[in-house]
Amino acid sequence: MLTFKIDGRWEPEDFIALLSGVESLYYKATISGRYYPFYEEALAFGQTLNGLSYEDRLAAGNAYLLQAARFTVSADRRLYVTRIQYASPGGVDVAGLGAVAEALYKSLQLLLTFIQERRLRQEGDKQAKIETEIKGESLRAIQIENAEKLLRLRREFPDDIVGFLLPLAVEDQRKLTSLMLEGKLVGVEYTKTEDSTS
Question: What is the pTM (predicted TM-score) of this model?
Fold first, then answer.
């Protein structure tokens, strides 16, 4: 089970960003290569969106994949919200496959640690704009590395599918990173449960 520690004042769109970002990452790491035709279809859909901006294509591709995953994944492999406690601080618990939940925990913990250390550095010294840009690039590098690790849980994906999924998984993390930077998503915990399967 994953527990997301939340703080501050949350609007509905914040919960949507948290839950859709986590759900989207979870299904990218859960669905295996046996769903190759499903990803081929999603890839073809993404290629029909050439008139849209890059960000709009990412959003449309992610929405398409998430909706398809919701219809495709069997009940025993799905992600479930088990508890939402809205307080300051509060928490959101989700349960799913143990190996995927643990991989998500490690990825998100890496992002949180980076952001918290960055805040401490910013409080301690005020550097030039270049340092901020370097840190922004470092954050993006962590998001890319996390996406690659999550996608490696299903190694049988061909390169073109991985190339399609990688920026989508980075975009999922961007939603979660925004909540972290705003001080709304302040922690994540992983608890192995009896229901967690590998």
Answer: 0.80
